[in-house]
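Notes from hallway chat w/ T.B., transcribed later so I don't forget. T.B. wanted the structure written out for a chain they're using in a teaching module, and asked if we could keep both sequence and structure tokens in one place. Agreed to drop them here.
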Amino acid sequence: MPPHIIKKLQDEIQTLEHELHHELPKELKRARALGDLSENAEFSMAKQRQDFVGARLAQLKRRLADLSLINMSNIPKDRAGFGSRVVLYDVDRDTEIEYRLVTSEEADVSKGLISTTSPIGRGLLGKKVGDTCKVTTPNGIREFEVRALQTLHGEVQPRFPEADTRTSPPE
């Protein structure tokens, strides 16, 4: 897994653990000192934050554990998978698009980085050059044709040879 993703998750975990174990107990103590807890908005907000931080920590730790289980040698060398760069032909829009399949933490559609868990990402997994896929997106069904592919392992599946549109010389 890319080290920067693991570091990002570990940093967020560390920040939230500090908040949960150091800052929130102080905040709860201050709020308790204000008196009646049944009508104490500060106490209620601090408890809600504590619950949220605890849930987010559990989610991040689970995600970090899931990422550590990814076996890079199981990622295909000849088909689209995590880390692949894919050049697609959007049949409906008559345009080519290039995407890189990444983790949900790295996803940024404006930079061409799509998550393997997004509708398009899931539709592309396992596809080879020449394959087509129909993907249901929030904007409707879109059809793509895989024109080129470079896998995480550096394996390149070339573009289709362009159709020869030249006319043959008169005889």
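Follow-up for T.B.: The helical segments are 3-33, 41-68, 119-124. Might be a good example for the class.
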